[in-house]
Amino acid sequence: MLTPEQAQARAAQAIDRARARGADAADAILIADTALSVSVRLGALEDVGRSEGGELGLRVFVGKRSASVATSDLSDAALDEVAERAVAMARLAPEDAWAGLAPAERLMKGTAPLLDLDDGGDVAPEALKAQALAAEDAARAVAGVTNSEGGSASASRAVVALATSHGFAGSYAVTSHGVSASVLAGTGSGMQRDYAHHSARHRASLEAPEAIGRLAGERAVARLDPARIASGAMPVVFDPRVGSSLLGHLTGAIAGPGVARGTSFLRDALGTAVFGPGVTIRDDPHRPRGLRSRPFDGEGLPVSPLAIVEGGVLQSWLLDSASARQLGLEPTGHATRGIGGGPGVGTSNLYMEAGRITREALIGEIEHGVLVTELIGHGVNGVTGDYSRGAAGFLIEKGEITRPVAEITIAGNLRQMFAGLVPASDLEFRYGVNVPTIRIDGMTVAGG
């Protein structure tokens, strides 16, 4: 696999070829990775997968016209062909008044922050198999578990390089490690499935596979014999493993392209109270070993921690350079970049700060409601904020979590949901997006 320095040099070479063929400006991203995964089922090895490769995406500008071409062939001849094709396509593309590279004066300069994202380790398949077996064995050992969808373990390493024709070149490496288990409990039509997983940048930071497996088994057994629930308005509590989806709806609503088009339900909300005064939401790209940490954004701009919501008030849009130009603002360092096409917009390590009330107290105040541990479907309208999703979880009765519930629907409007949201104090950093337990009163719940 290419080193970060080699990947950065190759991206720069692609730009040089594009400029030589008539491009006014260009940028290139190169992502090279290697991945190894092992899966087991019922104590036996089921699959071993290994992949290794690299891809380069070249974006060129001819005036206000642009085009993007991607290739997995990184040879000199292939880069020549990609550059020629990209410039020819750009000359035929329609003009875009907002297109262009990031402002040169805003590019990251100097040494990139040290984020400790690469543990440098090389994991043997035998070690991954042992982890997968340990996770599945622990899950199957839980009383009530009757079958297994398997256990798995994985390790990967990726190198990311970005270069632009107006002065930026940067690269970094990241490793990823993961362990998961998925099992079933019960028999016949009453069977229930659940899972658990953990991911980390460093292998040494992974939770024990036995703990992950045991949690998967306990979750599956807890879902047996779901009760029916009467429909009505009631408090809904979002477990942290599903509550993060609410932040996904927020970031979609404050992403620059949608705001510029006027297609977001929060298009007029900047500087206003969107949440209650006890809610603060931050984005931290510099979190050491963070699952979404990065030293620069998808356009070569520096990134820094940002309070997106402070004391309930929306403080910032998420802007790449094109949407910033359209709105007459400055980019915020939230451009994301894949191999194909131009930049998009996204966050890094996004999280909602912990509240002041414990999870137990948050639930203890509820006479009749539901705790949601699984969400199904994508019934969210980004233009109106209307929200309706299938769900499963547990009934809350007189302040206690009691019987499981399944095949229910929870509905509301994100404007009202955000305004009434109350966070608990149990924030943990386990995922790329993290929230504490969240309570929203007055949602409509339709029983299954």
UniProtKB/TrEMBL annotation:
Residues 26-90 form the Metalloprotease TldD/E N-terminal domain. Pfam families: PmbA_TldD_1st (PF01523), PmbA_TldD_2nd (PF19290), PmbA_TldD_3rd (PF19289). Residues 231-447 form the Metalloprotease TldD/E C-terminal domain. GO terms for cellular component: cytosol. GO terms for biological process: proteolysis. Residues 121-224 form the Metalloprotease TldD/E central domain. GO terms for molecular function: metallopeptidase activity. Belongs to the peptidase U62 family. This is TldD/PmbA family protein. It comes from Sphingomonas desiccabilis. The lineage of its organism: Bacteria, Pseudomonadati, Pseudomonadota, Alphaproteobacteria, Sphingomonadales.
